């Protein structure tokens, strides 16, 4: 057969190489936009296969991102990406295509939208449920200034479980500002979404009669609406609202003051472009419900969306098969040690319950979920609710353990103080990702937990130096204490210490000397004890014989040992992977001053700034947290104070 038929446009012309800004998308037709979306999807797969990064979320919004930049005009129009882990295609289309190989690398592009990186990044993100609040504020500013730019918030159904999103929609309905909320519904956060909202959204997608019924109602009423008097018109409007409330699955959003549209296919370019253009013409708050598939276009990610939420890279771009050799010699991760220990204890104690805020796999509570599903609670991305929910369990005699990343516990500080600490309730906070976390950067570093927890009365705060101490601290928290307890531990693998079968109680508020020395004492906490021992060995080469202490507890502080050490030590250096303000170093200085023990103290801590993203070794070198830099800093401090 002769090749007389035209080759489909999706096979003819590549477009991505000619896209240098969103303005270049304006001239493209629907088939060309579809081709561009295919190219962007391939670009994301290639990028993450080499570089690692958030993956399935960006694949799920490829068509939506292309359509948004075709219809709207950034940076004049403002697109706010909730969390921002799905914004890789947005970055590709907004002039950063040639820099994407530096994504999440030290001194390269950030893994999330960042206002200092591009004017197209309208609002910096990294945590969930913030986009609608930011959009409402930006729209209010626009209205006050008398300008006419469009404001769009793109939020996933997982982020929509956060209370802040509902607070924002409630206010937005009252403001009546022109804001478009796009609900990207894929029934996933990192793990499958949970709760009543998920079920409500599923009901919407299954309602076949909704669009036809609403169209019929509007058309029928419009036929005679102009012929009615005012009182009759009011009656008709009330009837219309009643019928809509009965038939419209999106009535919940409409009750908040947002007109609901959808659901539409988030991978159908023609539908997306048509809907977004229609949204442009509506001068009031509205919500467009878009159905997408997380991991779309990459079969392994579609089939295992949780696993492929993020990836470290090094996989085949067709099969997803890892191209890296698995290192079986690595010790288990701290989170795995915690998850396994909690299951061990809970199997023997029916009072133990486990709580996560949409992070079962990220905290290894999926082990608990599988073993004891009736005592496992995933509350969605709702950390404040999780803490007070735990308080409710505790006041009824249960032993709730809330596993949460350090950076996300910040979101529930009031509940921790008001609902748990003030009532002296026995809630255990298992604080994962304490300290720097690498490529995710400042929105995810656990740099402040020792500081923000330190001031809470009655809260016991401890940090293990290795995996065995983590197990023992969990046991101690559950069985040797009656009030609130926080255990902080880092991201990544442990030390490789062989684990004992049994659990051992750790004396509350008691530190441990792990190396004996002379005039210089290094006080460390958590995983920094290993670092302190390395520093001590380096100092030994310079003739400085340092004592190393594993403090184990920030609160209660082992003041007795500090006072004893102050008798023989002329200098203290405090090593902690926490902000230099308000942590262990501050506690030690306060106590020495209170006791009028005049000893110079050096804080070796994270700087009073937001640490950037990148490989941990690069970050440690930048802030002077690698072993040689620490040793040199402490040596200078010791020698200068000696003079």
Please specify the SSE layout and strand pairing.
Blueprint: H1 30-51, E1 53-54, H2 56-60, H3 62-71, E2 78-81, H4 88-96, H5 131-145, E3 151-156, H6 163-175, E4 180-185, H7 196-206, H8 210-224, H9 230-247, H10 251-255, E5 259-265, H11 269-280, E6 286-291, H12 299-303, E7 310-311, H13 334-348, E8 352-356, H14 366-371, E9 376-378, H15 383-395, E10 399-405, H16 406-409, H17 413-421, E11 428-432, H18 449-454, E12 460-462, H19 467-479, E13 485-488, E14 512-515, E15 520-524, H20 528-540, E16 546-550, E17 553-555, H21 559-568, E18 571-579, H22 584-594, E19 601-606, H23 616-623, H24 627-642
Helix amount = 40-55%
β-strand percent reads: 5-15%
Low-pLDDT windows of residues = 1-12
Broad shape: globular
From the N-terminal CA to the C-terminal CA, the straight-line distance is 94 Å
**Largest sheet, strands/sense/barrel:** 7 strands, mixed
Query: How many helices does DSSP assign?
Result: 24
The strand line-up of the biggest sheet is 9-8-10-11-13-12-17
As an assembly, this protein is single chain
Beta strand count: 19
How confident is the prediction overall: mean pLDDT?
A: 89
| The CATH H-level homologous superfamily of the largest domain | Thiamin diphosphate (ThDP)-binding fold, Pyr/PP domains
Structural class: alpha/beta
Q: Could you say how many structural domains there are in total?
A: 4
CATH classification, class level of the largest domain = Alpha Beta
Instruction: Supply the CATH architecture of the largest domain.
Output: 3-Layer(aba) Sandwich
Radius of gyration, CA atoms, in whole angstroms = 28 Å
């Amino acid at each position: 057969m002769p090749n007389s038929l035209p080759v489909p446009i999706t096979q003819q012309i590549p477009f991505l190489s000619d896209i240098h800004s969103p303005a270049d998308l304006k001239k493209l037709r629907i088939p060309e936009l579809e081709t561009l979306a295919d190219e962007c999807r391939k670009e994301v797969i290639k990028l993450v296969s080499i570089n690692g990064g958030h993956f399935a979320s960006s694949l799920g919004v490829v068509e939506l991102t292309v359509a948004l930049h075709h219809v709207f005009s950034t940076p004049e129009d403002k697109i706010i990406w909730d969390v921002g882990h799905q914004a890789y295609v947005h970055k590709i289309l907004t002039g950063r295509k040639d820099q994407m190989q530096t994504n999440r690398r030290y001194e390269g592009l950030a893994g999330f939208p960042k206002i200092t990186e591009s004017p197209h990044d309208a609002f910096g993100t990294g945590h969930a449920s913030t986009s609608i609040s930011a959009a409402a504020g930006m729209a209010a500013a626009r209205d006050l200034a008398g300008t006419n730019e469009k404001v769009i918030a793109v939020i996933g159904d997982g982020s929509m479980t956060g209370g802040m999103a509902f607070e924002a929609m409630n206010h937005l309905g009252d403001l009546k500002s022109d804001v478009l909320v796009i609900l990207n519904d894929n029934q996933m956060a990192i793990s499958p979404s949970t709760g009543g909202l998920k079920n409500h959204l599923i009901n919407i997608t299954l309602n076949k009669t909704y669009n036809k019924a609403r169209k019929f109602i509007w058309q029928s009423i419009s036929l005679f609406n102009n012929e009615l008097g005012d009182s009759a018109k009011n009656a008709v409007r009330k009837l219309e609202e009643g019928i809509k409330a009965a038939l419209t699955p999106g009535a919940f959003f409409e009750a908040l003051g947002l007109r609901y549209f959808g659901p539409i296919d988030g991978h159908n370019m023609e539908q997306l472009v048509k809907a977004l253009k229609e949204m442009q013409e509506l001068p009031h708050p509205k919500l467009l419900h878009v159905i997408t598939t997380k991991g779309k276009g990459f079969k392994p990610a579609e089939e295992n969306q949780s696993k492929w939420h993020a990836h470290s890279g090094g996989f085949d771009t067709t099969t997803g098969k890892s191209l890296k050799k698995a290192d079986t010699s690595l010790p288990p991760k701290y989170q795995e040690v915690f998850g396994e220990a909690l299951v061990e204890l809970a199997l023997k104690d029916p009072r133990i319950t486990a709580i996560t805020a949409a992070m079962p796999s990220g905290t290894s509570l999926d082990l608990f979920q599988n073993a004891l599903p009736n005592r496992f609670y995933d509350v969605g991305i709702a950390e404040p609710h999780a803490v007070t929910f735990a308080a409710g369990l505790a006041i009824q005699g249960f032993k709730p353990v809330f596993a949460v990343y350090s950076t996300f516990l910040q979101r529930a500080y009031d509940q921790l103080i008001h609902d748990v600490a003030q009532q002296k309730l026995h809630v255990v906070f298992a604080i994962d990702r304490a300290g720097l976390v690498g490529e995710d950067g400042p929105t995810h570093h656990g740099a402040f937990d020792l500081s923000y927890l330190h001031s809470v009365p009655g809260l016991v705060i401890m940090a293990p130096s290795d995996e065995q101490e983590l197990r023992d601290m969990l046991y101690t928290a559950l069985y040797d204490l009656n009030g609130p307890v926080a255990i902080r531990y880092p991201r990544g693998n442990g030390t490789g210490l062989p684990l004992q079968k049994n659990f051992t109680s750790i004396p509350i508020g008691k530190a441990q000397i792990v190396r004996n020395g002379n005039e210089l004492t290094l006080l460390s906490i958590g995983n920094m004890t290993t670092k302190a021992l390395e520093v001590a060995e380096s100092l030994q080469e310079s003739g400085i014989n340092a004592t190393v202490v594993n403090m184990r507890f920030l609160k209660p502080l082992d003041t007795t040992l500090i006072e004893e050490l102050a008798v023989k030590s002329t200098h203290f250096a405090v090593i902690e992977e926490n902000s230099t303000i308000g942590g262990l170093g501050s506690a030690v200085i306060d106590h020495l001053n209170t006791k009028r023990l005049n000893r110079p103290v050096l804080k070796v801590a994270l700087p009073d700034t937001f640490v950037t993203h990148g490989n941990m070794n690069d970050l440690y070198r930048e802030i002077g947290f690698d072993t040689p830099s620490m040793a040199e800093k402490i040596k200078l401090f010791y020698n200068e104070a000696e003079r």
